[in-house]
Amino acid sequence: MGARKIIYGIFGQRAGSVIVGTWNWLWGIPVEKGGTGAVMVAEESLRTMQETVQRLTEAVATQVAAYQRAEQKYMQKVREYQALENKARLAAQRGDQEAARLAMSQALQIEAILGPLKENVETAERYVNAAKQKLAREKERLAAYKSELSNLKDINEVNQVLEQMTRVNNSYNIDSAKSQFEAAKNAIQARQLRSRAMSELSEDRSEQIAAQLDEMAMDDEISRRLAMLTGQGSAPANLPMPDLDFEKRLP
After folding, report:
1. What's the pTM?
2. What is the pLDDT of residues 183-201, one digit of tens each?
3. What is the C-alpha to C-alpha distance for residues 28 and 23, in angstroms, rounded to an integer?
4. How distant is the alpha carbon of residue 114 from its chain centre?
5. Distance from CA of residue 192 to its chain's centroid?
6. 167 or 249, higher pLDDT
């Protein structure tokens, strides 16, 4: 606050506002982002407006005082003129022509300046009225800006709450984990399909067919032998029989 007053005192109101605004930018107060920095700049601007209105109030008070002095001086001269004119009338009524002429001469001198004095007073009155009207408008604007700043603070506070809620929600967002899980599942399933395809391609198809034929022939032979044992089938041709006298020929 002290540095800002010094800047305004050295460079003036307009140039000082530019310098202070530049400092806000250099210190990284992001007005365009509408965050806490913007609220700080708004508060700084409101303080500047308050000081400007205060100076305007003092200037208007000075103008009013000057107008009142001018008006008092004019009314004083009007009373002096009236007094001299009355004095001249009384002197003329007494027959004192010399005193009457002297009083009238002085009255005429005052009368000569009453016109310009009146114009000056009227001009001062217009200036004072215009200054008062401007001061009233600036005070109304200042009151509106104060109310608006309060609303902006409330809005910024709500925005901060919403941003905090958004950050909390995002921290518990499982959509990303779901996506990663689905990607991992798809990758595993795809690898399983590739492994199965590679296994099938690596097997010899002819060996598979031969194995299947052997299995079918074995099934047929088993069925035929079972039928023969139950008397429902014929004995196999050229079936080698065991040598029953083999043990008798042993020494």
Report:
1. 0.50
2. 787 878 788 777 777 766 6
3. 8
4. 62
5. 52
6. 167
